[in-house]
Write a structure and sequence with these properties.
Layout lengths: L1 E6 L8 H15 L3 E6 L11 E4 L2 H14 L8 H11 L3 E5 L3 H12 L3 E5 L19 H10 L5 E4 L2 H9 L7 E3 L6 H5 L12 E6 L12 H10 L4 E6 L10 H5 L4 E4 L13 H8 L3 E4 L8 H8 L4 E4 L14 E4 L4 H13 L2 H4 L2 H6 L6 H20 L1
Helix pairs in contact: 1-15, 4-5, 8-12
Length: about 400
């Protein structure tokens, strides 16, 4: 069986989507599935078991400009090019992850050749939140084109209930929806030995996220930190992610550098699966994972943290409450209440047994998100779809 992954953006732009697709593609390749990743721009990834194919940019750009700016459909311009790709690669199923406008164009062209299409949305390509200016669908051109394209898609895998609800609201039939969450290679996490000093009086926090100020809640770091200082809580906060160095522009953070360790990104060129062992070590040297995001489709960093026996304190926003169970593997704070979040940290500071007792719960809660289990499920999905196609 030959599967094509089409990804709107790929490395060097690092994020949960890119990590997930890379891990799944590598694991599927090792399982004997022919996996080809089609992307629109060059990548710096080197540890791939799958084949990477870069689309011809010029031809896509021409079709994109006519459709996006002039609302003129010249998709036929792509017919010959796409036909050659289909014949050369003998693709059974096209699996789109993280849609963009060009991906919507390609879906429409592929359906003219009766190709089988599965789509996985990862958040910003489907969800919208006007309060923080989040979501591609806030762009009316994308929103209209997406809604017209949805009926041409054969199946959807959804990461979380919030994604499922959004798809149903857009008129997607429930029978087309298959639950398929993100996953982690649990075995890899188990091999990394925790190096944390159990008697350290400082609370060590970690947050792993790209710099998306409102969406990821980075605008709240100063308020959280100030309240922690008021309560005389000793803490060290490690923040890791793409463009996180932009936090140095914040005057408060610049004047309290002793409280933070900011790491722009941890790349992975030499290990088969993400995250890199260096990042796992950062997780395992921490006490608590702090999540300030206002919205998540599925927080892959949540299950990475839990795989390190790391309890999570998070706002009870969309996506978070499907992974974090209050008082079981972490704490959920309602209404984005920063004071309540700080009060919870204060309770933990007074009695670390609260989080120590959660460690086994953390592992129990992620068994269903194991990479091997997920890949077996995805193969079953592909086989069922391919059978339907051949029938």
């Amino acid at each position: 069986m030959n599967i094509a992954f089409i990804l709107g953006t790929f490395f060097p732009k690092a994020g949960g989507v890119q990590v997930q697709v890379h891990n799944i593609a590598n694991k599927l390749s090792k399982s004997g599935i022919g996996v080809k990743l089609f992307i629109y721009n060059k990548t710096n990834i080197k540890n791939n078991n799958y084949e990477i194919i870069i689309f011809k940019k010029l031809i896509f750009n021409i079709v994109f400009v006519f459709k996006y700016y002039l609302n003129l459909n010249i998709f036929f311009f792509l017919n010959s090019y796409v036909s050659k790709i289909i014949k050369k690669n003998n693709i059974d199923i096209w699996h789109f992850n993280f849609l963009n406008f060009k991906s919507l164009i390609l879906i429409n062209v592929l359906k003219k050749f009766n190709q089988k299409i599965i789509v996985t949305f990862h958040g910003i390509d489907l969800q919208i939140d006007g309060a923080i200016n989040y979501g591609y669908r806030l762009n009316k051109r994308y929103d209209i084109f997406l809604k017209n394209t949805l009926k041409k898609i054969d199946k959807f895998t959804y990461l979380s209930e919030t994604i499922k609800e959004d798809l149903i609201k857009l008129g997607v039939e429930e029978q087309k929806l298959i639950y398929f969450p993100n996953s982690v290679n649990i075995e890899k996490f188990e091999k990394v030995i925790k190096k944390k000093n159990e008697y350290d009086e400082t609370l060590h926090f970690i947050t792993v996220a790209r710099f998306a100020e409102k969406k990821k809640g980075f605008d709240l770091i100063q308020e959280v930190s100030s309240k922690l200082i008021e309560k005389d809580i000793n803490f060290k906060w490690k923040i890791i992610g793409e463009n996180s160095e932009l936090l140095y522009k914040n005057k408060f953070i610049k004047s309290h550098l002793n409280l933070y360790e900011i790491i722009s990104n941890i790349e992975n060129f030499d290990e088969e699966f993400f995250p890199h062992t260096d990042l796992i070590n950062h997780y395992k040297s921490s006490d608590i994972y702090l999540n300030l995001s206002r919205i998540e489709s599925f927080g892959i960093t949540f299950i990475e943290a839990l795989a390190c026996k790391l309890p999570i304190i998070s706002f009870a926003g969309k996506g978070a409450d499907e992974i974090i169970k209050d008082k079981f593997n972490g704490f959920l704070i309602k209404d984005n209440n920063v004071s309540e979040l700080v009060n919870k940290i204060h309770q933990i500071k007074q009695n670390k047994v609260i989080i120590n007792n959660m460690q086994n719960n953390c592992l129990d809660s992620i068994k269903k998100f194991d990479l091997d289990t997920s890949c077996n499920k995805l193969i079953n999905i592909y086989e069922n779809e391919n059978y339907t196609k051949m029938k």
